[in-house]
Amino acid sequence: MSHLSTPSAQDAIQLEMRGSVAVIRLCRPAKRNALNDGLILALRDIFQHLPKEARAAVIHGEGEHFCAGLDLSELQERDAGEGLHHSRMWHSALECLEKGPVPVIVALHGAVVGGGLELASACHIRVADESAFFALPEGTRGIFVGGGGAVRIPKLIGAARMMDMMLTGRVYGAIDGERVGLAQYLVPTGTALDKALELANRIASNAPLTNYALMHALPRIAEQPADHGLFTEALMVSIVQSAPEAKARVRAFLEGKAAKVQKA
C-alpha cells in the first residue's frame, strides 16, 4: 500500500495486487465505508500510481456495506465558491477511475447509497449481490449530488429514474437495481467480490490497447454525432489492430488456435 494522501487515509483504504489485478478495499466498516475527502483523494492517488503490472482493478467494501455515501459527520458549511471547488475535486478524483489506465470492476453489497453510488457509477462494470440496495437520499436532505452522479447515473438508468430517486427517496433493491441498469451482474449474497475478481482476471487477459480503447473511445463515441462517431471508430480500429499483440491474436484465430465463442 503506497501513494496515499494522509496517514488516516492509509487506514481507510488498502491496495493489494493479485497477479495482474489491483484489488482496492474500502476499510471503514464502522462508518459503513462512508466517504470523506481523505478517502476520495486516496482513491485518486492509487489510480494515478497503479503498479505497472496492473491490467484491471476491483473495488470492494469491508464489512456489511459497500458504501453508505458521504460521511455527514464531516460535512462542512461552505459558501458557493467553496462548494464548487469541493465538488470539482471529487470530479477530478473519480475521473482517475473512469478515465484511468485499466478497467475497474466494483463489487457491491449492502448499502450503495449517495456518494457510494456515484463512486460505483464511475467504474466500468458493476457486480451486485442480492444484499445490495441503491439510493440517492441527497434530494430529501436538501442537498444535491456533487461527485459526478448527475452525469454518470442518468447514463445508466435515465434521467427520469434518477429524478424519481432523488425527489422521493426511492430505494432500489438488488433485483430491481440490476433490472434498471444500476448493475450489470446480480449474484448470490456474499459472492460479488468473487464474481468481480473472475471478471477482472478475464479482462486482464485482453489486449491492453483494446481495453483502453473500450474505456476511453467507446463512451466518447456514444456521445458524438453518428458521422463523428463512425470516423472515431475507424481511427480506433486502425490503431488497435496495428498492435503486435492484436496481430498475434488474429493470427491464432485464423490458424484455429484460439478459443471459439460458445453459448453461455
Keywords:
15% strand, alpha/beta, Lyase 2-enoyl-coa Hydratase, Chain  A, domain 2, disordered N terminus, 3-stranded mixed β-sheet, 264 residues, 2-enoyl-CoA Hydratase, Chain A, domain 1
Account of the 3D structure:
- With 264 residues, the chain is of the alpha/beta class.
- It has helices at 7-12, 37-48, 80-98, 115-121, 149-157, 159-168, 174-180, 192-204, 208-223, 226-241, 244-254, and strands spanning 13-18, 21-26, 56-61, 104-108, 111-113, 125-129, 133-135, 172-173, 185-187.
- α3 links the parallel β3 and β4.
- α4 packs across α5.
- Mean pLDDT is 91; it is low at 1-7.
Gap from first CA to last CA: 37 Å
Given the structure, what is the number of helices?
11
CATH class of the largest domain: Alpha Beta
Q: By CATH's scheme, which homologous superfamily of the largest domain applies?
A: 2-enoyl-CoA Hydratase, Chain A, domain 1
Mean pLDDT: 91
SSE succession: HEEHEHEEHEEHHEHEHHHH
